[in-house]
Design a protein that fits this description.
Length: about 230
């Protein structure tokens, strides 16, 4: 599976944003890893902000959520409730949530949510999201109890080596990446990015042409601030 859960920049080459190499070469001698880390942190913020608005890496609206298949939500989980106390707690959680969602769901499909034995049934995934007040494809699961993929975007530095001819002048390369941490979360992001299974293509972890310009502008600005004593040392 191609990795759609990582954005990498390096001066070694062969990265996902090689187009930056020519411009970066002009400032490489002044750059430090901290300059790239700060720039990638800004890239992370750009991704989080546009994804929350329902936009992909290129500023286009994500393909909408499914509107035809029913979806179930279990406030206390879908596992077996072995004790009377656990069953009572599950019903209370279900009823508490249901009271907030009894009104018809706004949008094309206005069917009401319905109670099941331990949860709530929605007419579709889109209807479920709308019932929770979310009207865009924000790439966040309401049902998941694990850490969400959008909450585990981590900036990492280092790990590359520049080798000159003869191998006698190796030096650490300038390298920074933005990764989705966690095996399940990383796989989920890749599934969305590639459009595997029943999922349409929704690319989050990628840099647009504007992102690349902003990234290099950030690096240049970080270098200037550091050299003038205003930024990170």
């Amino acid at each position: 599976m191609a990795n759609n859960s990582i954005i990498e920049f390096s001066d070694v080459g062969g990265t996902t944003i090689e187009k930056l190499a020519k411009r970066f070469s002009k400032i490489k001698s002044l750059a430090r890893e901290v300059d790239l880390v700060i720039a990638m942190q800004h890239q992370k913020l750009r991704i989080l902000k546009r994804t929350a608005r329902g936009l992909d890496f290129d500023g286009k609206t994500f393909t909408r959520y499914n509107r035809t298949r029913p979806v179930y939500v279990y406030p206390e989980g879908s596992g077996k409730t072995r004790t009377k106390r656990a069953r009572t707690a599950a019903k209370r959680s279900r009823d508490s949530l249901f009271l907030k969602l009894r009104k018809p769901v706004k949008g094309p499909n206005k069917s009401k949510p319905a109670k099941t034995r331990k949860g709530i049934k929605f007419p579709s995934y889109e209807a479920m999201k709308r019932a929770f007040g979310i009207n865009v494809v924000d790439m966040r699961s309401i049902r998941s109890r694990a850490r969400h993929m959008m909450d585990v975007l981590v900036v990492k530095a280092g790990g590359s080596t520049v080798r000159k001819r003869g191998g006698n002048s190796d030096r650490p390369g300038l390298s920074v990446s933005l990764v989705v941490e966690g095996r399940k979360q990383s796989r989920r992001m890749s599934i969305h990015g590639l459009g595997l299974g029943s999922q349409p293509v929704r690319r989050v972890m990628a840099m647009s042409a504007l992102d690349r310009v902003e990234f290099l502008n950030d690096v240049t600005r970080n270098i200037a601030e550091r050299l003038t004593g205003k930024g990170e040392v």
